[in-house]
Amino acid sequence: MELIEKIVSTLSGIVWGAPMLVLLVGTGIYLTVILKGMQFWALPHAMKLIFHKEHDGEGEISHFAALMTALAATVGIGNIVGVATAISLGGPGAVFWMWMTGLVGMATKYSEAVLAVKYRQKGHHHGFKGGPMYYLTYGLNMPKLGMAFAIFTALAAFGIGNMTQANAVATILETQMSVPTWVTGVVLLTLTAVVILGGIKSIGRFTSFLVPFMILVYVAVSLVILCMNLDKLPHALSLIFYHAFNPIAAGGGFVGATMAAAIRYGVARGVFSNESGLGSAPIAAAAAKTNDPVRQSLVSMTQTFIDTLVVCTMTALIILISPFWEQGVSPGVITMQSFTMYLGSFGTIVVVLSTALFAYSTILGWSYYGEKAFEYLLGERFIRLYRVLFIAGVMVGSMMKLEFVWNFSDLMNGMMAIPNLIALLLLSKVISSETNRYFTSRK
Questions:
Q1: Which of 309, 306, 220, 433 is nearest to 47 (CA)?
Q2: Model confidence over 69-103: pLDDT tens digits?
Q3: Which of the four CATH numbers 1.10.3470, 3.40.1000, 1.10.10, 1.20.1740 does domain 2-442 have?
């Protein structure tokens, strides 16, 4: 077992090395160029479309519900711990590169959704099916690559989208509130079953309530702290912009960081946070009720903006106006200590509950991604079996040590990105054509 763990850890490091990060960001830059920077000038229009309802469109859930399902999967513990890790290892400049990754990632997220809706297929009993496995199969006639993507997604869903999230909730509730892990497991298992057994409509309804609530509370509390410390914000922002292009020296407990480290960890954490290029979010976009691929894709694009440029930014600024990031404090507790410093025990409660809710929402979002991958591989008749197995995985994850599962999940996430990026690059003309058609017709 030790040998297997070592092999998986090594492979994960190779897959998520510099070439993958360059490919992910490079694809985003390429798509930004061919789409003429549409994520910038079309963002106001995209925001308006979030609440637009297409009563005559085909699909199962609204634009808003599809967005909330995708956000449920991406706004996770990475927005709390991941940002702290980026700053601890890459310095304040990592935040700048996280922003850059988010900005180009918006074009990637948009493009994935265009293809997902355009090439989605109608199921016999369960509405529409879509995502990279379908645009690889029907858009590029590469069913083997589609099958590979589905396998990686189904496996990743049980890891990064299930057991590791349940474990994170159980661990923080045990350490901060002395809640036994088995109790957390039973509660999470029950809550997960209640939602996912009803399928995408049930998931969409629940996440449409949960996700806005948890994001608004987290951002509101963060803004209160930032307003209490307006005098410190200019310095925090100057650290971000200056150290994006200049190394930061060691001091206190901080070990220092080069510009290369800032880029590496900023880009890596940005990609892990918003999942642009991984191919997960377009699976939810394909279920949206719409007659136009571009309309839902514009809504999907706002997911990366909200996740990286809003939620991650709140966490980063609060960390940088507090002293803990310079004192060698573990990334796992930097955010909590920063909130606690300004709000006392209330700050601790906010971070604990945010971690729990973010992780739970990730379980719900990824349950649907894994289900659609499972359906692609084995057919609709096995969906109920998948849901039962997924629910059982929540209990297992709550009570086990999961270092191996984390590494395996990272590997599967990276493997998902490879066929998806191939499809985005080879179908870029389709993406550009659909975009030009939509905006020309609006004029």
A1: 306
A2: 988 888 888 888 889 989 998 999 999 999 999 99
A3: 1.20.1740
